[in-house]
Amino acid sequence: MTKTITIRPATGHWVIRAGGAVIGESLNALELIEDDSPPIIYFPREDVEMAFLDKTDSAADCPQRGAATFYSIIAKSGAIPDAAWSYEAPAGDTAPIAGHVAFHVRDGITVEQL
C-alpha cells in the first residue's frame, strides 16, 4: 500500500531543544504529513547547529524517501543515539526535504512552534 505524503512550509518559528540546549531554530522549516501519522518537522541544515550532531552507522531505506542518514545528538548529559535523521537524496515528491534534518521527539528532545 502506497502512503500519501504531503510536504508544505511549517508556518511560524520552530525550535529544537535537546539536553537542555537549543540546537536549532527556523522560520523555514517544512512539515511532512504521512497518512494518519503526526506531522514531522524538517529543519534546514543551515538552521541547525550541526556541531551537536554526530553521524551514526544506522541506516534505513524508505521506498518513497530513499536512504536515511541518522545522527546522535551530543549533549552535556551524554549522547542521545539516533535522535535525528535526514535524506540525502529523497525521491520524487519528497525532494523538498533534501538538505533538511528531522528529530525524534522523545525524552530530552522537543520540537516546538514558538
TrEMBL record:
Coiled coil: none annotated. Transmembrane segments: none annotated. Residues 15-104 form the DUF427 domain. It holds the Pfam family NTP_transf_9. It comes from Halovulum marinum. This is DUF427 domain-containing protein.
